[in-house]
Amino acid sequence: MEQILRIGVIGGGMFFDDIIGPALHDFQRGGFAGALSSIGMSHYAPRVAGIRVEFVAIGTRSAARGTADLIRGAFLDEFPDAELKAYYGDTVWREMIAQERLDVLLVASPDHLHTQPILDALAAGLHVVAEKPLCLQTAEADRIIAAAARAGLIVAVDMHKRYDPFVREMMTRSLPLYNRIYRVRAVLEEPLQVATEVFQWVEQSNPFAYVGCHWLDVVGHYMGVKPRALYATGERMLLENWDRYVREIAILKQKDVATFSRHEAIHAWDAMNVNITYDNGMRGDFNNAWINPAEFEGAVNQELEVYGVLGRGFVDQQDRGFRETITGDGTRTRNPTFGGRIRHMGRHTELYGYGKASLAAGLLAIARVKFLGERIEDLGTSYPDACSQRSITQIIEAATAVAELNHHYLGERGAAPVTAVFTEDSTTLIDPLGGNRELYRR
Question: Mind listing the domains of the chain with CATH numbers?
Answer without folding.
Answer: 4-161+339-385 (3.40.50.720), 163-332 (3.30.360.10)
